[in-house]
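Figure 6 in text form: structure in, sequence out.
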């Protein structure tokens, strides 16, 4: 970048310098020579009008005093130089060889530049007039305008050299200001490409473009970091999921295999055979429930269109689920309270039935005494459903993980109840497919409360009966 700036600015400086040194100076010299030629020509005309040599000398003296010129008249025989010249004296020799005057046929003029006694330059012109066989030689120091132009040339050249130096310095500073942020951005991009997402790009530049570029790359790096962390988390969950599935499937299969082998043992009575058959059937049902839950989770996770919304009476659904699960509550001498007001909601009835079943069944499983209650209340444009139990509660350390697949707060008790460890995960998937969230709060030893919201719908008008 510095070389590029230097090249273009240097070309401009060289071009202007050549113009000043060659063209402009040549034009000034030409103008000065033309002035001397006119002066010499006018003097020659006036001198030629005086045939008397004495009178010619007087004319030259008068012109010297009036025009501040150094004048000399040269003929083949004589040379006249005024002794009282106010201007710088002419050099002793002439620009035209006197010995060849007779051979010259046309008017001839020669120009030269010499130094006076005070080292002041003199511009000299010698004009030969063949009509009078006379040489008029004039000399003049540079006029003030010529000196001004010459000084302007020097200043202009120095200014262009200074401009070149400043351009080089400026280009170096500009290149540093541009390349430094780009180098940092490039290094950070390389680290990001190598998988290092810890450092952010910090650009010490006032240029908004670099700041925007750094912010964009930082956002991209942050997004990549989040994606990679999410992929790593999903990989860990997948490994845990596969391990849990293999463990959950292996146990029922081993149990079924053991009970079937026991059934083949000779000498068993009918009561023992019945017991082994029932236990094998129980584990087979458990295995079937496990696969059904896994299929539900997979379908809900990858097929959001499986939610078929409709308007239905939530009270009827709660009563239906409570009636189905009341025998389980009665077995543990628990009160199942589900007397709720009538509200209509817009959701998938079969899926919400599955949610209520899992939550109430979960409350019954982890409550040894007291009650399990289902409460419903309207909150603006939502209907909130709460499942509250007086069971053993959940430690705060477990609350963030109870919706993970196969996660159990009490593994031994869950397996005894026949749970697969997927119930709450299915609840979360169903509600997320509805655009809602499941919430939980619990106190160890005092019970647990789950709640979620569904969109409220006004009660539909009854259809008119045709006569």
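Output sequence:
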């Amino acid at each position: 970048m510095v070389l590029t700036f230097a090249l273009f600015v240097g070309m401009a400086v060289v071009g202007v310098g050549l113009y000043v040194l060659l063209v402009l100076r040549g034009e000034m010299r030409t103008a000065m020579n033309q002035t001397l030629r006119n002066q010499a020509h006018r003097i020659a005309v006036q001198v030629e009008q005086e045939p008397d040599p004495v009178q010619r000398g007087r004319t030259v003296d008068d012109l010297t005093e009036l025009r501040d010129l150094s004048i000399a008249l040269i003929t083949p025989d004589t040379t006249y130089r005024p002794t009282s010249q106010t201007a710088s004296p002419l050099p002793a020799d002439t620009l035209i060889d006197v010995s060849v005057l007779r051979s010259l046929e046309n008017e001839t003029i020669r120009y030269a530049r010499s130094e006076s006694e005070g080292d002041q330059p003199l511009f000299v012109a010698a004009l030969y007039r063949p009509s009078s066989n006379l040489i008029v030689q004039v000399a003049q120091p540079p006029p003030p305008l010529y000196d001004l132009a010459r000084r302007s040339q020097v200043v202009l050249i120095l200014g262009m050299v200074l401009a070149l130096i400043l351009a080089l310095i400026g280009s170096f500073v500009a290149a540093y200001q541009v390349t430094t942020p780009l180098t940092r951005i490039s290094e950070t991009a390389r680290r990001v490409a190598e998988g290092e997402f810890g450092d952010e790009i910090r650009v010490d530049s006032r240029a908004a473009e670099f700041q925007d570029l750094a912010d964009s790359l930082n956002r991209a790096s942050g997004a990549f970091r989040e994606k990679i962390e999410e992929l790593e988390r999903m990989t860990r969950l997948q490994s845990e999921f596969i391990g849990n599935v293999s463990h959950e499937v292996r146990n029922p299969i081993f149990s079924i295999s053991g009970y079937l082998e026991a059934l083949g043992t000779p000498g068993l009575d009918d009561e023992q055979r019945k017991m082994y058959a029932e236990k094998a059937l129980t584990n087979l049902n458990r295995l079937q429930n496990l696969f059904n839950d896994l299929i539900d989770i997979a379908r809900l996770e990858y097929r959001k269109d499986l939610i078929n919304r409709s308007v239905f009476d939530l009270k009827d659904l709660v009563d239906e689920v409570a009636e189905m699960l009341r025998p389980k509550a009665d077995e543990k001498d628990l009160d199942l309270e589900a007397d709720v007001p009538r509200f209509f909601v817009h959701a998938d009835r079969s899926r919400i039935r599955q949610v209520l079943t899992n939550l109430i069944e979960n409350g019954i499983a982890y409550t040894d005494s007291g009650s399990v209650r289902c409460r419903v209340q309207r909150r603006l444009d939502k209907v909130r459903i709460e499942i509250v139990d007086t069971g053993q509660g959940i430690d705060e350390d477990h609350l963030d993980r109870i919706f993970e697949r196969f996660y159990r707060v009490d593994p031994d008790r869950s397996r005894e109840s026949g749970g697969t460890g997927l119930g709450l995960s299915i609840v979360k998937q169903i509600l997320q497919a509805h655009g809602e969230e499941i919430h939980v709060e619990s106190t160890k030893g005092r019970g647990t409360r789950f709640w979620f919201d569904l969109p409220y719908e006004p009660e539909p008008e009854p259809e008119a009966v045709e006569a």
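Caption detail: The longest helix spans residues 208-263.
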